[in-house]
Amino acid sequence: MSTPTPVDDERTAYRVAALPLEYGSTRINQLFTRGYNRYIVDGEDQPDDLLDDLERFGTAAFKENVRTNAADEPFVDEPGTLAVLATLAAICVKAHPKFEHAPPRKIQVLYSIRELYVNNLASLLREFGDATLQQDIAEVLYAKDTSGESPHPGRVCTGITEMPEFGGGLYLEIPMVAASRNCLVYDADRRDAGTEDDREILTRVKDNRLYVPAGDFDEKYHAYAERAFKKLLRVQEDGLSEDQQVWLTTNESAITDRINRFIETGHHERIWRNWDQGERTIRVLRRAISESADDVVQQDEFHTAKELYSAVTAYDTENNWEASITDWISSPSSLAKTLANHQSHSAVTIKRDGRVNQYRIGHPGTGSTQIDVDAIEDLFELPCMANMEERLHEKKPIRKDLYNFARMVMWLPQYQNSSLDEIVADLKDVFSRWPWYDEQVTDYQIRYEFTNTIDGNTPLPMNCDNDDMQRYCIGKDQCPYSIWGSLPFPDEMYNQVDEHGSGRTEQF
Q1: Which domains does the chain have, with CATH numbers?
Q2: Judging by beta carbons within 10 Å of its beta carbon (0-12, 13-18, 19+), is residue 427 exposed, middle or buried?
Q3: In which residue ranges of the chain is pLDDT below 70?
Q4: For residue 66, which of 78, 56, 80 has the smallest C-alpha distance?
Q5: Torsion angle, CA of 134/140/144/148, rounded to 10 degrees?
């Protein structure tokens, strides 16, 4: 008897669609084949029908209500078709010229497509109604690590059942001998209670079995499905020939047109991840000020809204999203209102002690005591760096100390056009003051740090919130300085800060 495949067996198709991280490329491509077969009629390919459906799926992903409703009622009615349409739509998005050099984790459209896929898959699995498939998924989510041990011979999840004695609701039944720590579910509504020990455990125990609330299953599987989509997309990309990809991206138009429309109308939050209108507005104001004549306005100086508005109106940009912001600022009063709305931004300071308010636009951290850095040694004016300097007389540096030192120096204005040999020589002069200094080792370590990039960008220097700086910090409340606010870093560094945002970017 032949082994069933996703091509011709519905349950196998659902299992591969539900758990692609547990399968290789062969099974996943068979799932795609099942989806493509829908577009073959009487032995003839129907490429126009495929194109229509993937454009319908891709454009629907822009709509929040469609993505949300897909969790209750499937937008696409079959798992193979769903996998094909979602991955092809994502490939079209990645091929858009606007995203040519953008890492996928920054493209909001990909997250929207993934959300529609994950919600659609969840509703398909629910409608399929196979309890054993739910148990298969539970095997992956809740089984303990058996590295070096024999795997549990029976089911990890032995049932999904109502438990009236626990207050009602569905629970997954898991023998304690097969359970992992993932089975411990804490009350999500009491995250402010402190450590896990302070919160109520929602997992119940009866007859040597754990009973896990079904809601935790849904939450953990949602996270799994998000990771799984990345693998589906990779397998689809690897499986398409160059000619097929060219045909796809050449003939698709609806998704591309929708992206272009959002760009032209300034709806950047629809296409870029973690878009912050306030950050972008301040960024445009900085650029307008930096390109204005010094006798008009200057960065880090106080000016009236009228003076700043003159810089905005004079700012000539060919960038559509920047133009949308400058056009939106229609008068000095609208600029004043904009700055008032964003006065909590670290680069905005408003002086209200006169008849007319004055505004200062600076770098993040403006308000900190400024440091003129003519030589690398001037960095030791920062109390944290002074503490580091003192410690390095007593102990060898950890790698993060060298990393931070090197990155600070790399971003200093006087080294922007210097060769690596020049920077290394100056750093070695500084490092030679410490007793552990070894010229060859230090030369290698510095060069190593300078070769590391993140997506082709020079890594930012650590800021005051970085955990690794806390061992040297005297306390932000006590310190008149800040690393990003006190040092004369160039605009390019602050632009990179704007692009990355204040929080860590979620990986796609």
Answers
A1: 10-129+241-270 (no CATH), 148-219 (no CATH), 277-361 (1.10.10), 376-500 (no CATH)
A2: buried
A3: 1, 101, 145-153, 188-199, 266, 274-279, 294, 319-321, 346, 363-368, 452-457, 465-467, 476-477, 491, 494-508
A4: 56
A5: 140
